Every structure is written in structure tokens, then in C-alpha cells.
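lol ok so funny story. i was supposed to be doing the assay writeup but got distracted and ended up predicting the structure for this chain instead. priorities right. anyway since i did it might as well share w the group, maybe its usefull for someone
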Amino acid sequence: MIRLIMIAGAGGFLGTVSRFLTSRYFQNLFLSSFPLGTFIVNITGCLLIGIFFGLSEKGNLLSPEWRMFLTVGFCGGFTTFSTFAGENIALLKDGNFFYFALYTGLSVFLGLMATFLGNSIVVKVM
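and the output, tada:
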């Protein structure tokens, strides 16, 4: 059990650092009240988890340890629902109802589509 905790924790550390750097990069690149950095991180994370689940469904392509590291650890640290929720509350408080609706709608729809696409890519290629 300790071994799995360490594996997930290492992946989470790398995912968190990657989220911070990626989100900050895109938010600084495109100055806007739309939370583009978190949006890009979350959609990318959905695509990655779809790919990782697809790889683990294909048999021996991912060991249970690698699956834990990549899905629970890395993707869990990389994506962020709490930041998504906090940014939506901030948009509502600021009266940015259009960005609120756009951010929420696109995040849910594109997140599900990216996860499906990632899984489909692996299933069709392999």
C-alpha cells in the first residue's frame, strides 16, 4: 500500500508542477478574464486520461503501477476541479455571465469529448 501511495504521490507532484507551469504560461500569454490556463490544462488532462485508460484497457501496455502513476497521480495533479469551480464563482461575482456559461459549457463538453477521443485514438491505433 505504501508503494502505491508513493507512486501516486510522485505522479501527483509532477502533474501539479506541470499544471502550474502550463496554466501560468497560457494565462500570461493571453491576458483575459476568461480562465484560459485552467481550461487548457483540464481539456489536455481529459485527453491524456483517455489515452492512459485506453492503453491500460489494451492489455499489458500499462502495468497497474504505471496506470496509478499516470491516471491517479499525474492526471489527478494536473487537472483541477476546485480551481475550475473557484474561477466560475469569480466570473459570476464579477458579472461575467457570458464567460461563466462559455467556460462551464465548453469545459464539460470538450472534457468529455477529449477523454473519448483519447480513448478512441488508442483503441483504433493499437
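Residues 2-120 form one domain. The chain has one domain: 2-120.
back to the writeup now i swear
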